[in-house]
């Protein structure tokens, strides 16, 4: 049982670190990240505003995952976020291939933290 707890902690650390990095890097160097915003979304709002909003979302998600509070739901949101990023930017698969590992780590965290009622 101790191993499961350690695995849970390492999964949370690894997944949250990716979201922390992306949120901070996109805020500090938005021009390096703005190309990942899907073109149809740029008709809704300016891309720099969308990027800032997404960075805030990633920061909140990273803190939530790291906190360990309701881990199943934070891992589920993480999985959905990552699969959306992969699908929306599939033409950049040479860059995004690492996101598959992070996605499956999020799925593993969700499965490992699921509790039947």
The total beta strand count reads 0
Radius of gyration: 15 Å
The SS-based structural class is: mainly alpha
**Gap between N and C termini, in Å?**
20 Å
Q: How many structurally independent domains?
A: 1
Weakly predicted, low-confidence segments: none
Strand content: under 5%
H-E string: HHHH
Descriptive report:
The two termini are 20 Å apart. The model has no long low-confidence stretch (mean pLDDT 95). It contains 4 helices and no strands. It is mainly α and 117 residues long. It is 74% helix and 0% strand. The chain has helices spanning 2-28, 47-67, 71-88, 93-113. The chain has one domain.
Secondary structure topology:
Blueprint: H1 2-28, H2 47-67, H3 71-88, H4 93-113
Q: Keywords, please?
A:
117 residues; 4 helices
Give a short summary of the structure.
The longest helix is centred in the first third of the chain and has 27 residues, at 2-28. The mean pLDDT is 95. The chain has four helices and no strands.
């Amino acid at each position: 049982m101790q191993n499961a707890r350690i695995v849970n902690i390492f999964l949370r650390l690894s997944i949250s670190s990716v979201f922390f990095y992306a949120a901070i890097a996109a805020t500090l160097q938005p021009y390096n990240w703005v190309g990942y915003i899907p073109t149809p979304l740029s008709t809704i709002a300016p891309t720099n505003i969308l990027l800032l909003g997404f960075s805030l979302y990633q920061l909140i998600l990273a803190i939530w995952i790291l906190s360990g509070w309701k881990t199943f739901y934070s891992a589920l949101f993480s999985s959905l976020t990552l699969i959306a990023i992969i699908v929306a930017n599939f033409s950049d698969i040479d860059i995004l291939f690492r996101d598959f590992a992070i996605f499956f780590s999020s799925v593993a965290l969700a499965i490992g933290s699921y509790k039947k009622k």
